[in-house]
Amino acid sequence: MASKIIYERFIWFDHQVKGKKYPNAFRLAEKFEISPKTAQRDIEFMRDRLRCPLKYDPSQKGYFYKDGTFSLPMIYLSPAELSSLLIARKLLRDVSHGYMGEELNSVAEKITNVLDRHSPCGNVDCNISFRLIEYSPPPEKTFLAALEGRLNRKRLNFTYYSPASDETSQRKVDPYHLFNYMGTWHLIGHCHLRGTIRDFALGRMSDARILDETFEQRSDFDVNHYFQSSFGIFKGKSKRKVTLRFSPEKARWVKDQIWHKDQKTRTLKNGSLELSFPVADFSEIKMEILKHGDMVEVIKPKRLRELIKAEAKGIAKIY
Questions:
Q1: Which CATH number does 234-318 carry?
Q2: To pair with 163 at 20 to 30 A between CA atoms, which of 73, 225, 247, 270?
Q3: pTM of the entire predicted model
Q4: Distance between CA atoms of residues 196 and 205, nearest Å
Q5: Residue 37 belongs to what H/E stretch?
Q6: What is the CATH number of domain 140-228?
Q7: What is the DSSP letter of 72?
Q8: Other beta carbons less than 10 A from residue 213's beta carbon
Q9: Are 44 and 28 a contacting pair, CB within 8 Å?
Q10: Beta carbons within 8 Å of 250's beta carbon, 6+ residues apart
Q11: Sign of the torsion formed by the C-alpha atoms of 77, 79, 85 and 86
């Protein structure tokens, strides 16, 4: 609360400066009933920490801005809030993959201007970044159509490419939820062609357009429940418990990782680590297991062990 009261003094002083009223420490102290020393410390804080381009004019016995375009942010931000804004701004740019339109660019630039002026760390791009690989950025038109359809509850029509069948099909979809997974944007929605809820990768959508048809979201759809029954983005009808055993060497790297919110871990006497969690589809967990080579073993279920064994044999034939 005290910090916000102090910031009110900053705002008043800024308004006085912009109005060319040449405020000083005496007038600030008189206005807010504080000591002249406290008022002077406020002015020095504005100049040194908030980077206000204040300069004292002896002839006017008050301060003015050397840069007439300067703008003091009108919202008080605590250090924690400033840190959150830094991350949000950087995430907005990095996850957009460069297809941000004029509106998003405008938002990002406004945030950047405030942070670059008032953050003591300087250029935020030198401090925080997000690095993504193997993602599929969609065209800006597709992303904006999906977003507008979701926000306004309008049906979408688009052509969708399936890499599994290597074919395209026309889809009419009620958009329920947009999410970004590992850098790739996805749309969850009710597919009228299949008559069920499906996951669509925006990068495989083309000719997306918003229809003049509104929809009501299914009452039995809950996005949190939807993700609970999946590992990554792959879903199945029933869950099965998967147990992986990592070697002592690999366990040191894996022990602090979160693979699933309901995971359980057990450290064995030899230093190996057993990681267990529910999975509804083996597609993605199989890819994750193969990343770790011979440093992980599938303990159960037997079906997953067989899939990994068959995959290993196939790899051995190549090499």
A1: 3.30.70
A2: 225
A3: 0.61
A4: 18
A5: helix 36-48
A6: 2.30.30
A7: -
A8: 12
A9: no
A10: 273, 292, 295, 296
A11: positive
